[in-house]
Amino acid sequence: MLFLVQDGITNGAIYALLGLALVLVFAVTRVILIPQGEFVTYGALTYASLSAGQMPGTARLALAMGIVAFGLDLFAGRKSLHVRLIGRAFAVNIFLPAVIFALTFWLAGRHPPIAVNIALSLLIVAAIGLFLYRIAFQPLAHTSVLVLLIASVGCHLALQGFGLVFFGAEGQRGPTIADTAFTVGPLRFTGQSIAVYAITIAFIVALWLFFGFTLYGKALRATAVNRLGARLVGIRTTLSGQIAFLLASVIGAISGILIVPITTLYYDTGFLIGLKGFIAAIIGGLVSYPLTAVAALLVGCVEAFSSFYASNFKEVIVFTLIIPVLLLRSLAAPAVEEEKD
Amino acid sequence: MPQRLPIILFALAMAAIPFIPGMPPFWIVLLDNIGLSALVAMGLVLLTGVGGLTSFGQAAFCGFGAYTTAVLTTAYGVSPWLTLPLSLLVSGIAAVLLGLVTVRLSGHYLPLGTIAWGLGLFYLFSKLEFLGRNDGISGIPPLSIGSFRMIDPGAIYFAIWTAVLVCALLTTNLLDSRTGRAIRALRRGHIAAEAFGVQAPRAKLLVFIYAAVLAGLSGWLYAHFQRAANPTPFGAQAGIEYLFIAVVGGAGYVWGGVLGAAIVVILKEILQSYLPYLFHGEGQLETIVFGILLVVLLQLAPAGVWPWLTARLPLKPNRKRPDTSLTLPASHKVPAAAGVLLRIDQARKRFGGVIAVNNVSFDVKTREIVALIGPNGAGKSTTFNLITGVLTSSGGTISVFDKKIDNAPPQEVVKLGIARTFQHVKLVPEMSVLENVAIGAHLRGHAGALSSMFRLDRSDEARLLAEAARQIERVGLGKEIDQLAGSLSLGQQRIVEIARALCVDPMLLLLDEPAAGLRHLEKQQLARLLRQLRDGGMSVLLVEHDMGFVMNLADRVVVLDFGTKIAEGTPQAIKTNPEVIKAYLGAVA
């Protein structure tokens, strides 16, 4: 019994991280980030490839996306091109991914320490996340949630396809971050699961500090509430969107790196993991971070128990779990609904 | 019938395609698939694009349709034609059950809820023994008429496309009717629609069921086309794809669903068959390109390809003018004797710690114009919302002709002959002025969804539109009758709201800042209209900030400040009331 709870909490912590990222992105950009799962697989498999001494294809993708983003920046600013604008666009979109690419190329095969591999994987996925917003979502920022959602699904398909090209259909595992293990009573704690808990808690606290106490965090919240109002007081809403995607991709990649030593990941595993984080986010109402974290732990536990007792119907149980929750939520808050678009 | 012409031409063209000599059978299969997807997408257009309810679960309803006929025809030997109504019925019942739970979900919970049960049902289909688990059911008999068995794709083609055309016609008919207007009003929030008697939850459930039945029909056809049913085409992936189709084609347009189906199905086919040649068969390339193209397409035409296309065609819809000689029976009789129409007694509304309306009492007599004035935040609009049932009061009573109505839902309040306008205009911008105003007459028509689909509602409909046209003429907007409501100036939109309220044929008109945004002449016109209405027997309660307008028009003025009534009397008395002056200008130093 207890080991099921433990298993559930470890998985739940990962879902919590992903749920937080989804809430963050939705609140700021109104995008329901289906490609979150791809950030997970990209992070995990990039890390695994680097550890195996291979050059991950994601570095190439980051560079290619950077070039497209550069083109879009130039096109968008074609009416008032000046050196500073071109310089900045070049630095962010070309120089940055090129450096990452060169670094990856140089390090691959030299077996650097685990920390370097992790940092490099995070950098690569962060760049992809940033450019993804610039290329796919920034031009659509004014459209409805539905259109953004469909675009999000399109990105998911494309990124998943790239995942297969880069990493193949074979599953991979990565080296653990910490090998220690100890037992308390009937439970065995591995260093990896401790790392999962620690990083999840660290992220929740960091996000809370970021949104509560920093100027950028507050700017992001302002954008979430009212884009026009935020722009009027001088917040660059595109910057807010980029920051949100950057954070989401880093969080996704970290989750991936955390679980790839525990379970084998395939190029398409991320989708289902992301979806469960998503359920947690929904239960949290796409607004509340602490509630999302609690809900994620719940989802993890339900999953662990149902896979033990009724493994055939595991997915049915996990996914139908949310309907009563949704119903309760919308009955609890039948606020006067203003027109929306 | 000029507006039917394109459809007839399209039908003839589709009927001719299989007879073109040398037509590759592969293309017919493609067209079959397009038709099947178009049916589901059409339901989604109504549900998502028009009704504003996003659903990822439509594929599951196809599954209900397909599995119903699969089980009945293979295990029980029932004729395929007999299973058609049963398939539709099962999809419909599933929709009722799921709809009762999910349609109540507000905002973003709804799409997420549909993903959840979409996935859940998919796993259920693939685990149940009598549905053949993952392998599904095969050996489903083909459709047949007499000895003509629709085995090859060219034969069932006619069944599929007949279904598509018939459903497209029924759907367009439905949208262009009393029920259709109610559905179209839902997307912009339901407060305005409910204020005119639309039962929003029921209308939502209706579109939900309609979309599910269309999906069930598609599933039934699919089962007899493939002659097999397995869980894969009814999973979440397919559910998402149907939503693509609707959005790419143009989620608000019935034919957008058909166009979207053509675009997506053909695109996927091309990618699957040609990309491997170009790139030597690297796996999943088509998903990459498909995903990228989808994003590009949305960036080029965020509203969908259909409206993008029709905006470039030189076709102008010629709208028929409603025949204004038709009349509706009057709905509310005002008693001839003078008396109190509306009485508000100690009404109270508390929002958390704030008391927005604090024990306010006043009344409105028959044939009287009463103005409710006060500084911003005085509780005027809240009082309106209490009267019309948008908000529930925390205390006190509100009665109409001494009958208590407090906390009756908006749909009941309007039946008593109380109609309102809103401080923040609540029209449907993409509907014409005529259609918006006709929503006001919702309760005076009786045609239901089914009769609208089969065009049995025309006399009812003509009377409603005639009434709407008369009220538009009455408020002086006859020239803008065919304009989209969103294209009018804010002042004109307020006047449209008044016309809509007049369509109720009310005893009491509640106007929330009707003169805001009007020019001087327009204000005079409005004042004249309101006096006319009063002399015709109507009472008016209005909130207004333009003191010149109020003082010249109102018979009586009630002044609120911070939720409390501070004065009541004739305009003359109010102008000199020290309390009122203090509230507006601050204490005299």
Describe this structure in words.
The complex is a heterodimer of chains A (341) and B (589). With 341 residues, chain A is mainly alpha-helical. Chain A is built from 14 helices and two strands, in the order ααααααββαααααααα. Chain A has a two-stranded antiparallel sheet with strand order 1-2. The N and C termini of chain A lie far apart (47 Å). Chain B has 589 residues and is of the alpha/beta class. Chain B is 54% helix and 12% strand. Chain B is built from 23 helices and 14 strands. Chain B has a six-stranded mixed sheet, sandwiched between helices. In chain B, strand 11, helix 20 (520-535) and strand 12 (539-543) form a beta-alpha-beta unit. In chain B, helix 2 crosses helix 11, helix 3 (58-75) runs antiparallel to helix 4 (80-102) and helix 10 crosses helix 11 (254-279). The termini of chain B are far apart. The mean pLDDT of chain B is 86. Chains A and B meet through helix 6, helix 11, helix 13 and helix 14 of A and helix 5, helix 10 and helix 12 of B.
Topology:
The complex is a heterodimer of chains A (341) and B (589).
Chain A: H1 2-29, H2 36-51, H3 57-76, H4 83-107, H5 114-137, H6 145-167, E1 181-184, E2 187-190, H7 191-213, H8 215-225, H9 227-232, H10 237-259, H11 269-283, H12 289-309, H13 314-320, H14 322-332
Antiparallel strand pairs in A: 1-2
Helix pairs in contact in A: 1-7, 1-8, 1-10, 1-11, 1-12, 2-5, 2-6, 2-10, 2-11, 3-4, 3-5, 4-5, 5-10, 7-8, 7-10, 8-10, 11-12, 12-13
Chain B: H1 5-16, H2 25-50, H3 58-75, H4 80-102, H5 109-125, E1 137-138, E2 143-145, E3 148-150, H6 153-175, H7 178-186, H8 191-195, H9 200-226, E4 228-229, H10 236-249, H11 254-279, H12 285-300, H13 305-312, E5 340-351, E6 354-365, E7 369-373, H14 380-387, E8 395-400, E9 403-404, H15 410-415, E10 418-420, H16 433-439, H17 449-453, H18 458-474, H19 490-502, E11 508-512, H20 520-535, E12 539-543, H21 547-553, E13 556-561, E14 564-569, H22 571-576, H23 578-585
Parallel strand pairs in B: 7-12, 7-13, 10-11, 11-12
Antiparallel strand pairs in B: 1-4, 2-3, 5-6, 5-8, 8-9, 13-14
